[in-house]
Amino acid sequence: MTNRPTNVDTVLASFQERWSPRILTRVNDDDVRLAKVEGSFVWHSHPDTDELFIVLDGSLDIHLRESGTETAVHLERHDVFVVPRGIEHCPESPEGASVMLLEPAGTLSTGDYEGDVPDHINSTTGIQV
Question: So what's the pLDDT on residue 55?
């Protein structure tokens, strides 16, 4: 943690990897993460926590599965959406997007996913900037 401001655009310009969130800062026990996304993530859930998505640039679709029903939420620049704890979801951005995420420190990006993680995804608790 630092007592100096951190510029979001500077951090986003510092990396190119997709689906590899960077920890921008911490608020209480939560990480504020930045990620560049493109293509599809994996279906997963976070049994013990909600997950906040803020689209900074581009657009993001979040596919949701609950009680056997699948729906999707479409987010554009500056839209905010919370995936409730325990809800299976799969973020996707065919054209690419930059997103800010808020979730408890130590939360694995792939949540409870148990399969082989595709090469384009970094299953991580966040990379410190």
Answer: 99
The CA radius of gyration of the chain, in Å to the nearest whole number, is 14
Domains and CATH numbers, the chain: 8-105 (2.60.120.10)
Q: Residue 123 half-sphere exposure, CB side, CA atoms within 13 Å? A: 13
Local structure of 77: helix, strand or coil: coil
| pLDDT at residue number 48 | 96
In the numeric block, which tokens belong to residue 24? 């921008």
Cβ atoms of residues 89 and 65 within 8 Å: yes
- 64, β-bridge pairs: 71, 89
For the whole prediction, is pTM greater than 0.85?
Answer: yes
Q: How many CB atoms lie within 10 A of CB 55?
A: 21
pLDDT digits (tens, 9 = 90+) for 85-101: 999 999 999 999 999 99
- Residue ranges in the chain modelled with pLDDT below 50: none
Cβ(79)–Cβ(125) under 8 Å? no
Distance, CA of 120 to CA of 105 (rounded, Å): 23
